[in-house]
Structure of Immunoglobulin V-set domain-containing protein:
Amino acid sequence: SKQRCGAFRISYHCCDTVTNIESYEGYSESINCPYENQYQSSLKYVCRGNRPSTCLQRALITSNNKQSGRFSLNDIKMSSIFTVTISSLTQSDSGHYLCGVQTNSDHDVFSAVELRVKGESTVPSTVKTPGKTIPPTVETLVKTITSTMKALGKTQKQTPSQPIKGTVYTILVFQYPWDLMF
C-alpha cells in the first residue's frame, strides 16, 4: 500500500502495510517498489528507516544514480515498478526501508519494506543459479549434486582449477554425519 507523506508532515511511521522479505547472509535480495503510471518519469529512491520526511536526503540509491556500492536500482517503466537489489547481504542490512517516488507536490509517495537477514543456514533455503533463485526440492538438489559429480568425474578426481561451463556447483554443509546417508 502507498501513502502520501511529505516534508511538512512530521511522521515516524509512513505506510499502513509493510512488505516483509526474508533472506540470508551472503545472498542478494531485490526489493520491488510499485508506483502509479503517472510517476514513470519521476525520481525514485530508497532509504533506510521509516521517516518519510527525511527519506530523500538519506537515500541509499536513486534513479539518477543507479549503482551505489552493494545497491543497484532498475526502473521497469512498462510495469510501473522499480527494483532495488542489495548484494552480499549481512545481518546489519536487516531493518525497515522506504521506497519513495518524488511527486510534483509537497508529498512524495512511499511504500514500506521490512528486510530480515538471517545467518547462514546449514540447509540452503534456495538454490542459486545465474539469473534466478528457485526454492530447493529434492529433485533440484539431486540434479545439482549429480551434475557436479559427473562434471568432476569427467575431468579429474580433484576439484577442477577452472569452473566447468554449464555446471552448477553446490556445496552442502550437513550438521550431522548421518545426513550424508541417502
